[in-house]
Write a structure and sequence with these properties.
There is one protein chain. With about 550 residues, this protein is mainly alpha-helical. It has a single domain, classed as MetI-like (MetI-like fold). It has 25 helices and no strands.
Length: about 550
């Protein structure tokens, strides 16, 4: 009995979990000032939304409490919960196979598994309908076997499949960045005490991944709340579609803003759940020099592991590319005019790169305040950055149009305002990734620098930020890839004549010109694959193929 108690206590110590708040009670002004500016920028759409909603008077309660609104609420929560669960089931084994095992073609799988981020949800929806619809490509293949019609893909099944296809990399990239920072000493200590590899994973490794899993799950859930393309094409009404219809049918921004309040409330609940799931734990290296974990030898399981990764990539990347390629080839064979200005490619890359750089810099003070100087104000500030990700892009865009037209006309219809919209929309991706990395950094490293006379600002600049590099790079990659495909904000806020690959694909698809839509969609994948490959492969040198 004493041996069992001692082993349990040792495993708890091995986990490296330390409770408590920050190491320094008073953060420097170099953190608070930029973090406050970030909070002000993020608050603009929320303030606009509340002002518009309260302008509805008593009508807001009639709208929010009607039966149809409650039905939409149930459908929205069901979609977000199901997609988040499916993404966790897919990404946890996928990330472990790519990062921690000797599976063949790991680097290739790492790059390809992140590419669904750049596939617009409306393009993925078109692909799902074309491939799995009642009269789609799969039904035509099965027709010789007597299959005249496949089960209905529209509604909840199709929307869930489509959103999962494009959303799981949010969780995957966060998990892979976290797994690369795990301390191998903890697992070695567990194995030395007689624990099996499976028990070591669940008792030591999995608890350390909980912050990354919670942060990635939050991003997936919030993405499910705000997605428009997939739910509209698959005819599954959520709040995003309802808000759009309210704008389109009644041109009443007040009632549409009232509807948008509900996704904000749902996002707040998700934020609280994520914070409870993550807890106040810190997972970092106790002592010693950082070194990579030893790769797990799969042996006879290599083929099965590679088959699992290949299946995920086949459904999320190869299938959309094949359908888009088919449409493009059909357009060429029919001699359709397929023209695309190269300035469109440059516009997409330039605007997305600016947004990624600004978001990565803005995430640093927010992440450091949240992790190293945990307090009610810092937690509230960090939570506030996630609200923008839950709002539909059309709401963010209209809020910034209202602000620019009334208070800053000089920035109206400029690239700078579009970049601000991208940052507000996608900042949580950079914040969550940076926080996950910072929780694995031992705060005693920073304390040692402070004890040697370095100022707090110098410690942040020379110690903390360099140690955060994996999380910052992963967050910047997420922002870059998602900004490339953003549609509503680009359509409303882009300068006159400013076209991107996403807007070009949408314009062609909305007119039924699938061949013309396939060309910018495929270029979107091509342009994004090169920086994605560089970012993912450069994060850890020396890994095997």
């Amino acid at each position: 009995m004493e041996v069992a108690v001692a082993r349990s206590q040792a495993l708890s110590d091995v986990a490296g979990r330390t409770r408590g708040g920050s190491r320094h009670s008073r953060p420097p002004a170099s953190l608070w000032l930029p973090a406050a500016l970030v909070a002000v920028a993020v608050a603009i759409p929320l303030v606009y939304l509340l002002l518009r909603a309260f302008g509805a008077g008593g009508e807001i309660w009639d709208l929010l409490l009607r039966r149809r609104t409650l039905e939409i609420l149930g459908r929205t929560v069901a979609l977000a919960g199901t997609v988040t669960t499916l993404c966790a089931l897919i990404t946890l084994p996928l990330a472990w196979l790519i990062v921690r095992t000797d599976m063949p073609l790991r680097r290739t799988c790492r790059v390809l598994s992140a590419l669904p981020l750049v596939i617009p949800s409306y393009v993925a929806g078109l692909v799902v309908v074309a491939a799995l619809g009642p009269r789609g490509a799969l039904q035509q293949l099965l027709a010789p076997l007597g299959v005249e019609r496949l089960p209905e893909i529209y509604g909840f099944p199709g929307a869930t499949l489509t959103v999962t296809m494009v959303a799981f990399p949010y969780m995957l990239l966060t998990l892979m960045a976290s797994m690369r920072g795990l301390d191998p000493c903890l697992e070695e200590a567990s194995r030395s005490m007689g624990c099996s590899p499976w028990r070591t994973f669940w008792r030591v490794v999995f608890p350390q991944l909980r912050p990354a899993l919670a942060a990635g799950g939050l991003l997936v859930a919030l993405y499910s709340l705000r997605d428009f393309g997939a739910v509209s094409l698959l005819k599954y009404e959520t709040f995003t579609w309802a808000i759009y219809l309210q704008y389109q049918t009644s041109f009443d921004r007040v009632l549409a803003a009232a509807l948008a309040v509900i996704p904000v409330l749902i996002a707040v609940i998700f934020l609280v759940v994520e914070m409870r799931t993550r807890g106040r734990s810190r997972y970092h290296r106790a002592t010693g020099t950082a070194r990579p974990s030893a790769l797990v030898r799969l042996g006879q399981w290599k083929l099965l592991a590679l088959s699992f990764c290949s299946l995920v990539i086949l459904l999320s990347v190869a299938l959309p590319v094949a359908v888009l390629g088919y449409w493009l080839g059909k357009g060429f064979s029919n001699a359709e005019p397929l023209r695309l200005a190269w300035s469109t490619v440059a516009n997409s890359g330039y605007a997305s790169a600016l947004a990624a750089a600004v978001a990565a810099v803005a995430a640093i003070p927010v992440a450091i305040l949240s992790v190293r100087h945990s307090s009610k104000p810092s937690v509230l500030l960090e939570r506030a950055t996630y609200v923008g990700f839950a709002l539909p892009g059309i709401v963010i865009a209209l809020a910034l149009v209202f602000f620019a037209a009334n208070y800053a006309p000089v920035v109206y219809q400029t690239l700078g305002l579009l970049v601000v919209a991208y940052v507000i929309l996608f900042l949580p991706q950079a914040v969550g990734s940076a926080e996950s990395s910072l929780r694995q950094v031992n705060p005693h490293i920073e304390d040692a620098a402070r004890s040697l006379g370095s100022s707090p600002t110098k410690v942040i600049r020379t110690i903390t930020v360099p140690l955060l590099r994996p999380g910052i790079v992963a967050g910047a990659a997420l922002v870059f890839l998602t900004a490339m495909k953003e549609l509503p904000a680009t359509l409303i806020l882009g300068p006159i004549g400013f076209k991107t690959l996403a807007t070009s694909a949408w314009s062609a698809a909305s007119e039924g010109l699938f061949a013309s839509a396939a060309l910018p969609a495929l270029l979107l994948l091509l342009v994004s694959s090169a920086p994605m490959a560089f970012l993912t492969l450069s994060q850890r040198k020396g890994e095997g193929l």
